[in-house]
Specification:
The chain has 2 domains: 38 residues, no CATH class; 240 residues, P-loop containing nucleotide triphosphate hydrolases (Rossmann fold, 3-Layer(aba) Sandwich), CATH 3.40.50.300. The relative contact order is 0.15. The chain contains 10 helices and 12 strands. By secondary structure, it is an alpha/beta fold. The chain binds adenosine-5'-triphosphate. Adenosine-5'-triphosphate binds next to helix 3 and helix 9. One of its GO terms (molecular function) is ATP hydrolysis activity. This is Iron-sulfur cluster carrier protein.
């Protein structure tokens, strides 16, 4: 993607785009290539509330989210936020959002000022997991007011668009939306902001690492081989982008039968810990498969907000991160 300062400059750069595409296509091993020119047009006017007029006609507050990113030089810090942690996974469905939500709540219970940004733009799950139904607001059309849930300051694209509608955006729109969620949300002073990423190694990950000064990334994986293979790809991506990986969390690690007490290793055992060892990374902890965790997530009351044995696991994880200066 080539970012131009204006639509006119983008038009003049067309020969550069075509040549870049041709040269990359000529490289050995390249199977397909698509070079795109993008330019940030004039700012969109503020829209009236009650949901008219987002790019796909989806309901949204006064501020339109989802636009081309503004050009910037190198990764930027977000004012007022001391640490930004990306919660990432290679494979989908391994429990990244569950980890982000519970860790955020557990850190808040340790007295930290915590933010949670749901950057899973195509499948935002934090509104449900954190039990937030109300829409975000932007009274001035410039800044977005985040919501508070379980002691955590939270924002999700799911609070800005119609939850029943698909977000159909190309890479530049995703990058612009992420930039807006980081810089236009009134986060206030935070000790740590957790960013719940989409699975994989796509535009959102790339954009976050290149544009935002991150403290580091935490990789969530199940012990299963297919998840670990993808977790390795995520690790590679962060290395390539120069983002420190702070450790690996193994989720869905064993299931203790509530009836007979026997432990079954549904997705295998110890795979993520072995991977951390092999990669020379800290192993941050193991979270078992737990019915209460799943139910609590669906009900919008993260298990870490309670006092069950499952909550104690999240508390220990949060304390480890605080002790290590990560949160
Ligand atoms: N430790 C756990 N015990 C029981 N259920 C879990 C656990 N972790 C996650 N789940 C459940 O597994 C499902 C997938 O989890 P989650 O949405 O957190 O994954 P994800 O990696 O964020 O998915 P996506 O790829 O869609 O972003 C959810 O229904 C969640 O409640």
């Amino acid at each position: 993607m080539i970012e131009a300062p204006s639509p006119e400059a983008a038009r003049r750069l067309e020969p550069v785009r075509a040549e870049a595409e041709a040269r990359i296509r000529a490289l050995e091993g390249v199977q397909s290539v698509s070079v795109v020119l993008t330019a940030h047009g004039p700012a969109a006017p503020a829209r009236p509330p009650q949901g008219q007029g987002t790019p796909q006609g989806q309901g949204a507050p006064a501020l339109t989210v989802g636009r081309h990113p503004t050009p910037q030089a190198g990764p930027q810090a977000v004012p007022g936020i001391d640490r930004i942690l990306a919660i990432a996974s290679g494979k989908g469905g391994v429990g990244k959002s569950t980890v982000a939500a519970n860790l955020a709540v557990a850190l808040a219970r340790e007295g930290r000022r915590v933010g949670l940004l749901d950057a899973d733009i195509h499948g935002p799950s934090q509104p449900r997991m954190m039990g937030v139904a109300r829409r975000a607001s932007s009274p001035d059309g410039q800044t977005i007011e985040p919501v508070q849930a379980h002691g955590v300051t939270m924002m999700s694209i799911g609070l800005m668009v119609d939850p029943g509608k698909a977000v159909v955006w190309r890479g530049p729109m995703l990058m612009g939306a992420l930039q807006q969620l980081l810089t236009q949300v009134a986060w206030g002073r935070l000790d740590v902001l957790l960013v719940d990423l989409p699975p994989g190694t796509g535009d959102v990950q790339l954009s976050l690492c290149q544009r935002t000064r991150l403290t580091g990334a935490i990789i969530v994986s199940t012990p299963q081989d297919v998840a670990l293979i993808d977790a390795r790809k995520a690790l590679d991506m962060f290395r390539l982008l120069g983002t420190p990986v702070l450790g690996i969390i193994e989720n869905m690690s064993g299931f203790v039968c509530p009836h007979c007490g026997q432990e079954s290793h549904i997705f295998g055992q110890g795979g993520a810990e072995a991977e951390a060892l092999r990669e020379g990374l800290p192993f941050l902890g193991r979270i078992p498969i737990d019915l209460a965790t799943r139910l609590a997530g669906d009900e919008g009351l993260p298990v870490a907000a309670g006092d069950s044995p499952a909550a104690a696991i999240w508390r220990a994880l949060a304390q480890r991160l605080v002790a290590g200066g990560m949160a």
